[in-house]
């Protein structure tokens, strides 16, 4: 009977340790998932800023080309 009780006690301790490890692992996964979502959000914001910069550059280039064409043809507006 004592051996059986000790075996059950050891099994309960091992299960508790496994549960604690699983809880720690789950917590780490949750934290990493949050950081991943933050990174994705920041990356999307950066991409939008890059797009805006690209469109501004295109606008500036087009303005310059139109100015040059108008200047060359003598049709300044």
In short:
This protein is an all-alpha fold and 77 residues long. It is 94% helix and 0% strand. The longest helix has 72 residues, at 2-73.
What does this structure look like?
The chain is mainly α. Helices cover 94% and strands 0% of the residues. The chain contains 1 helix and no strands. It has one helix at 2-73. The longest helix is centred in the middle third of the chain and has 72 residues, at 2-73. The protein is rod-shaped and about 110 Å long. The mean pLDDT is 83.
What do the pLDDT scores average to? 83
Report the sheet with the most strands, covering strand number, pairing sense and barrel closure.
none
Straight-line distance between termini? 103 Å
Shape: rod-shaped
- Beta fraction of the residues? under 5%
User: Strand-and-helix sequence, N→C?
Assistant: H
Low-confidence stretches: none
Number of β-strand runs:
0
| Rg, Å, rounded | 33 Å
Number of distinct helices: 1
Kindly state the percentage of residues in helix: over 70%
Structural class from helices and strands? mainly alpha
SSE arrangement:
Elements: H1 2-73
């Amino acid at each position: 009977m004592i051996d059986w009780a000790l075996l059950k006690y050891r099994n309960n301790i091992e299960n508790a340790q496994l549960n604690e490890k699983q809880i720690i692992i789950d917590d780490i996964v949750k934290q990493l998932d949050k950081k991943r979502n933050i990174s994705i959000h920041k990356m999307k914001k950066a991409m939008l800023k890059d797009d805006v910069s690209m469109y501004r550059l295109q606008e500036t280039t087009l303005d310059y080309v139109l100015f040059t064409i108008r200047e060359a043809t003598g049709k300044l507006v």
